[in-house]
């Protein structure tokens, strides 16, 4: 389970980094989105990667750490706002320069 989770995070990170290095604004926004998914999964894995277990750890009635879940929720909200801002910024750049190239200049 942990190996598949780690491979998934690695594939999302590598795909996001590849798309971030492209020359079009849509692929950059898509790369940012994939990177934010990878970060969200990484933050989720900081908790417990166990299924069918109670949230209360029975040794002395300790509770599971709620910080990773709070970090994941915060990361989801921030990534949604970041994606919306990047889309609006790329649309504004497209309107001003007439191209969706990251530099604003088409190269043959």
Automatic annotation (TrEMBL):
Transmembrane regions listed in the UniProt entry: 6-21, 28-50, 70-91
Record GO cellular component, one term: plasma membrane
Location relative to the cell: Cell membrane
Superkingdom of origin organism: Bacteria
InterPro entries: CPA3_antiporter_subunitC, NUOK/Mnh_C1-like
Keywords: Cell membrane, Membrane, Transmembrane, Transmembrane helix
The keyword Hydrolase is annotated on this UniProt entry: no
Gene3D superfamilies documented for this protein: 1.10.287.3510
Pfam families hit by this protein: Oxidored_q2
Keyword Transmembrane helix part of the UniProt annotation: yes
UniProt main location, coarse: membrane
Membrane-topology annotation of the record: Multi-pass membrane protein
Sequence similarity: Belongs to the CPA3 antiporters (TC 2.A.63) subunit C family.
Descriptive protein name: Multisubunit potassium/proton antiporter PhaC subunit
Organism in which the protein naturally occurs: Cupriavidus agavae
């Amino acid at each position: 389970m942990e190996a598949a989770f780690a491979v998934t995070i690695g594939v999302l990170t590598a795909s996001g980094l590849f798309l971030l290095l492209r020359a079009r604004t849509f692929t950059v926004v898509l790369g940012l989105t994939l990177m934010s998914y990878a970060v969200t999964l990484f933050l989720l894995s900081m908790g417990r990667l166990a299924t069918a277990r109670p949230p209360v750890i029975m040794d002395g009635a300790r509770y599971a750490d709620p910080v990773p879940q709070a970090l994941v929720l915060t990361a989801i909200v921030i990534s949604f706002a970041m994606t919306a801002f990047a889309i609006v910024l790329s649309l504004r750049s497209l309107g001003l320069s007439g191209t969706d190239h990251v530099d604003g200049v088409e190269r043959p």
